[in-house]
Amino acid sequence: MGDILKEVLEIVGERRISLACFEGANIVLYTKDKDFFLDNKGIIRKAVDEFKKRVELRPDSSICLAQDKTKKMIEKLIPEEAGLSQIIFDPQRSQVIIETEKPGLAIGKQGATLREIREQTLWIPLIRRTPAIKSELIENIRAVLYENNDFRRKFLDKTGKRIYSGWTRGKRQEWIRVSFMGAARQVGRSAVLLQTPESRVLLDCGVDVSAGDEAAYPHFELPELNVEELDAVIITHSHVDHSGLLPLLFKYGYKGPIYCTEPTRDVMSLLQLDMIKIMRAEGKEPLFSSDDIKEMVKHTICLDFDEVTDITPDVRITLYNAGHILGSAMVHMHIGNGLHNMLFTGDFKYERSNLLEGAVTKFPRLETLMMEATYGGKENVLPSRKDSEQEVAEIITNTIKRGGKILMPVLGSGRAQEVLLIIEKMVKEGIMPKVPVFIDGMVWDITAIHTAYPEFLNSKVRKQIFHKDSNPFLAEFFSRVGSQKERKQICEEQGPCIILATSGMMVGGPSVQYFKALAENKNNSLVFTCYLGPGTLAQRLALGEREIGFEIGKNKREMIKVKMDIHKLDGFTGHAGRNELINFVGACEPKPRKVVIVHGESRRCLDLASSLHKKYKVETSAPRNLESVRLR
Length: 632
Fold this sequence. Notes:
With 632 residues, the chain is α/β, with parallel strands linked by helices. The protein folds into 4 domains: 4-62, GMP Synthetase, Chain A, domain 3 (2-Layer Sandwich); 64-130, 2-Layer Sandwich (GMP Synthetase, Chain A, domain 3); 174-378 and 575-630, Ribonuclease Z/Hydroxyacylglutathione hydrolase-like (Metallo-beta-lactamase, Chain A, 4-Layer Sandwich), CATH 3.60.15.10; 385-572, Rossmann fold (3-Layer(aba) Sandwich), CATH 3.40.50. The protein has 21 helices and 28 strands. It is globular and about 80 Å long. The mean pLDDT is 93.
């Protein structure tokens, strides 16, 4: 593409621009000309049309109104009923972030208020919704970004220079190769390396929490992998089996960009901090530090669904809704200037859930589909959501009638919020009695993040969150558990209740503590709603083990006889069941020529690959870890 900045300046007029730089794949121009900033007479649109890239015009900070005067102006212009909560200045980008409870009122009719702020102050106003539940984590992440504004500006400019550098790694050839570092014929440690003559891109970087030692980590020893030569990392969603080892890359010397959605960035940061906490509690040395997580946040470029962006000279990506958890994305990759198009699904849910819209099936082009098979086996025909909701209502009602407690070990992100919505709905409709619901572990923090990003939820929940009085996550019978003392009180003094606690597979976390206290009472119930990894305590209990030993000190074991009822409900999973997986492939437009099956137990991957080949007459494969597949 040559020197794109020079070519853009030729159209816009170099004398008008004080600085031209990149923000990733976007081109940003700063001007000291007030009149040109307020009305560029379509010149920027002309540059966009010419280069088919996002070109943004901003005021040079030297012409912006002083921050104290701007703050007073904003407070005057934003109507009181909009609920103004915070004003944050980003002087490096000449932007001001305005947080309000009701963004629509702050924006004004057809953007009138924003336009007036822009004209009066010359700052670019950005409106953000104030989260319905305060999130310290979101505030900390935003603080890291604002504190490192100068670093971010340089980093994003460097990223853009790499994207527009043209072919730099020798003679232009045309081939595409993917190598599987993890999650091939297994669930967990998702990591796929995509290579072209020009690019090295890593898709996901997860850990298998149900495995021990080295089997938990992706194959970083892959000969093709040099962390320092990676051009980009893309994270499909925040679950630790897809994002848990990302900070480790920065410890190993990675300095490039991470691409994901905003909710994914926030939730994965929280889960990674929790990994450090759990490892320390178990007397282990954490794999990375909070400083490594901070580096990850500083290097993250967040994308919205359907936003197209170049990430290297020959790879362009678009993130599409995957329907799995908040912010989860399927990655569409346009490789080699139209040479090949691949969709990497990550984990996805094809059907609409109580929380999210279902996964997208329409794409511009599609030759290779790389999809998960967590529930891809013949036996994985999942019950309907309606039947599952009825079953959980009966379990809860029967347990409460006999004076028991219901323990639901959940994944912090996804299933927990889905279950909260279901409970709130069933209480409202009188299907089950109203009892206290205690929320323990990271569930509360992640629920707060859900309220910060309602645009990623389905239309029904989004509308409820927009109206404070009907926000389902703020139901008065939901309570946060904040201490060991409160846990003890719930187990020993509290009457019938529901407890949602992490971790979902019972490999640590508060769910194990509650289990130890409640397991020997036959009136209580244990309800699993998520995938249970092989060998985990949760799976052992679901398979019928009724005597469990715990280490309580050197050479000492505590034996617990399990008398509580145990139920495994597959209908609440955030993964597509077998029929959904098959129907998803059939619904894809255009139809893929090749389907590569990953992220499933070996038998399920092979079974799904065989079934898809027979049904759709499409080429399928189920590679193993450390294998490579050439796509072109």
